[in-house]
């Protein structure tokens, strides 16, 4: 969610009195004390993209603060003063230099924690006290293990652990009762060292006539291009690491997924020394996003445009196609990790196209029990997917009643009680 950019001059003049949101990008090296004049109303504070390395000891004066963004600063530790903020439920420190995460640094009510792209080698042993956490982003750190106390975080729904140094994945993590979106590619036990594909061919960048950029995602830029006298879509990955992990792992998972009618069709891959890429079939006109990303309030759940409505028949067709796609992915030992309406494309005929493997994980290196757990985690994500679509259904009938029953079963707390993808398909 974009916030309106404010200025330090406005803050000092008193022009922002009574505001609930504040965003300052002014190369700040020190915390502006004038922010305290908003203590009675301020709920969202965004000081990302500055030069801050610490917070003052009286920061908890901001007693109504709910969400704090300090991404892309110079922090090397998580300030302990945060634990004294009574209403703070969301903290983001993406892209700092954090290597120190001391015990009891955060408020126990924290629900959403973003620590992507730092230098954290270990989480505190007391991490389990953050038992209300729903969303946890830790990709791109140096974690070698997770504290067992984290098994008490029973509210966790989304966890990102890709591009760390984990030597294994713990069973207790896979058994968390509400976990639905999990990614852990690019660790010591499962990191891709090279592109591995028998099905798809390598394509040279010089074989492509790149026209223009037509889109952008977390891990790369999408371009319109020509290849062998046909228009195609070309995804060029950014850098060595993305918000979800390494581009090489994403590309390998996409190729490992192979072909399915509802997957955006891969045609080949780019493997240049300084550039990885994916050549894909161009999505036809008329396709659009099925939903919108989660908001601050929904945290892990999708949102939809105002007035959005889908008929029960439309939703049923979409759910059938998604279930078939996920069954196919798991047959090929790939978990998607990001099963959402906002990652799905549909047209007016309810034809589904699914892609974006940024949070995908190769399951082939897991033992059978762990593969089964991952199956159950993604079944839970399918349950949420169905539930979200039922919030915008145009009317209720026997179809919506049956879909709601399937969603309920997919969301059972005990994973062993959840149906398999094949069982869901049979019921559909």
Automatic annotation (TrEMBL):
<dbReference type="InterPro" id="IPR001611">
    <property type="entry name" value="Leu-rich_rpt"/>
</dbReference>
<dbReference type="InterPro" id="IPR003591">
    <property type="entry name" value="Leu-rich_rpt_typical-subtyp"/>
</dbReference>
<dbReference type="InterPro" id="IPR032675">
    <property type="entry name" value="LRR_dom_sf"/>
</dbReference>
<dbReference type="Pfam" id="PF13855">
    <property type="entry name" value="LRR_8"/>
</dbReference>
<protein>
    <submittedName>
        <fullName>Leucine rich repeat-containing protein</fullName>
    </submittedName>
</protein>
<keyword id="KW-0067">ATP-binding</keyword>
<dbReference type="InterPro" id="IPR050216">
    <property type="entry name" value="LRR_domain-containing"/>
</dbReference>
<dbReference type="Pfam" id="PF00069">
    <property type="entry name" value="Pkinase"/>
</dbReference>
<feature type="binding site">
    <location>
        <position position="235"/>
    </location>
    <ligand>
        <name>ATP</name>
    </ligand>
</feature>
<dbReference type="InterPro" id="IPR017441">
    <property type="entry name" value="Protein_kinase_ATP_BS"/>
</dbReference>
<keyword id="KW-0433">Leucine-rich repeat</keyword>
<keyword id="KW-0547">Nucleotide-binding</keyword>
<dbReference type="InterPro" id="IPR000719">
    <property type="entry name" value="Prot_kinase_dom"/>
</dbReference>
<dbReference type="InterPro" id="IPR011009">
    <property type="entry name" value="Kinase-like_dom_sf"/>
</dbReference>
<feature type="domain" description="Protein kinase">
    <location>
        <begin position="208"/>
        <end position="428"/>
    </location>
</feature>
<keyword id="KW-0677">Repeat</keyword>
């Amino acid at each position: 969610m974009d916030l309106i950019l404010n200025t330090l001059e406005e803050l000092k003049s008193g022009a922002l009195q009574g505001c609930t949101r504040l965003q300052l990008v002014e190369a700040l090296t020190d915390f502006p004390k004038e922010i305290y004049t908003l203590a009675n109303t301020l709920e969202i504070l965004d000081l990302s993209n500055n030069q801050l390395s610490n917070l003052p000891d009286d920061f908890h004066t901001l007693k109504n603060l709910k969400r704090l963004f300090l991404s892309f600063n110079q922090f090397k530790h998580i300030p302990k003063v945060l634990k004294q903020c009574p209403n703070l439920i969301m903290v983001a420190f993406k892209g700092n230099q954090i290597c120190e995460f001391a015990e009891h640094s955060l408020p126990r009510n924290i629900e959403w924690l973003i620590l992507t792209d730092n230098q954290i080698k270990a989480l505190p042993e007391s991490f389990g006290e953050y038992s209300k956490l729903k969303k946890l982003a830790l990709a791109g750190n140096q974690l070698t293990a997770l504290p067992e106390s984290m098994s008490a975080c029973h509210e966790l729904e989304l966890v990102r652990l890709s591009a760390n140094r984990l030597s294994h994945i713990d069973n207790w993590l896979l058994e968390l009762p509400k976990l639905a979106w999990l990614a852990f590619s690019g660790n010591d036990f499962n990191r891709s060292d090279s592109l591995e594909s028998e099905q798809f061919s390598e394509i040279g960048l010089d074989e492509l006539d790149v026209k223009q950029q037509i889109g952008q995602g977390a891990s790369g830029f999408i371009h319109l291009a020509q290849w062998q006298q046909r228009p195609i879509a070309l995804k060029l990955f950014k850098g060595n690491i993305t918000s979800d992990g390494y581009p090489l792992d994403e590309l390998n998972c996409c190729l490992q997924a192979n072909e399915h009618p509802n997957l955006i069709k891969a045609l080949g891959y780019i493997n240049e020394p300084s550039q990885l890429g994916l050549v894909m079939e161009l999505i036809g006109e008329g396709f659009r996003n099925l939903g919108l990303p989660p908001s601050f309030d929904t945290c892990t759940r999708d949102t939809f445009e105002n007035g959005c409505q889908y008929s029960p028949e439309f939703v049923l067709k979409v759910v059938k196609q998604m279930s078939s796609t996920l069954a196919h992915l798991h047959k090929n030992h790939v978990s998607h990790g990001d099963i959402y309406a906002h990652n799905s494309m549909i047209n007016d005929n309810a034809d589904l196209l699914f892609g974006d493997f940024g949070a995908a994980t190769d399951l082939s290196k897991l033992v059978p029990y762990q593969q089964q757990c991952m199956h159950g985690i993604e079944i839970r994500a399918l349950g949420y997917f169905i539930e979200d679509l039922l919030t915008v259904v145009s009317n209720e009938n026997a179809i919506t009643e049956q879909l709601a029953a399937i969603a309920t079963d997919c969301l059972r707390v005990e994973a062993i009680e959840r149906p398999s993808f094949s069982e869901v398909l049979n019921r559909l």
